[in-house]
């Protein structure tokens, strides 16, 4: 075969790979959010009021089991567990798994909003020990230098 045919074949393969990647990304199957959406039952009545990004799901399994299923597929950046539930932080999202009388309720939400909402449970683990404004070094003579 002539070299230009190889370029045509390589170009076609690249276009096909790009199409497959785009389908996988936009089909909702990527990341922990997509995993939860595909594997657990949507429970809109359990969404946290006032948070448009929050979605609640349920599972008949206990929180630690659900967390194990999710973390086996998607490794979190930070994780903590206490009596109130399991808290998983990913780059953009947080997955909060709490006990419910018949299993678990799973909340998907923005990581920053989850930090603010569950601060007392996650502050010591998720790595944000101060508000964003406290990292500013200004403030007058000798301050922050």
Oligomeric nature of the chains:
single chain
What structural class do the secondary elements suggest? alpha+beta
Rg is 21 Å
What string, H for helix and E for strand, traces the elements in order?
HHEEHEEEEHH
- In percent, how much strand structure appears in the residues? 15-25%
Overall body shape = elongated
How many helical stretches? 5
Unreliable runs: 129-140
Main sheet? 6 strands, antiparallel
Overall mean pLDDT score?
80
The number of distinct β-strands equals: 6
Name the helicity range.
40-55%
Terminal residue distance: 67 Å
Q: What spatial order of strands do you see in the largest sheet? A: 1-2-6-5-4-3
Keywords: Membrane, Transmembrane, Transmembrane helix
Organism: Saccharopolyspora flava
Transmembrane segments: 6-27
Protein name: DUF4247 domain-containing protein
Describe this structure in words.
The protein starts with a helix and ends in a 19-residue tail after the last helix. It has five helices and six strands, in the order H-H-E-E-H-E-E-E-E-H-H. With 145 residues, it is an alpha+beta fold. Helix content is 41%, strand content 23%. A six-stranded antiparallel sheet has the order 1-2-6-5-4-3, with helices on both faces. The protein has a domain at 32-130. Residues 129-140 have low confidence and may be disordered.
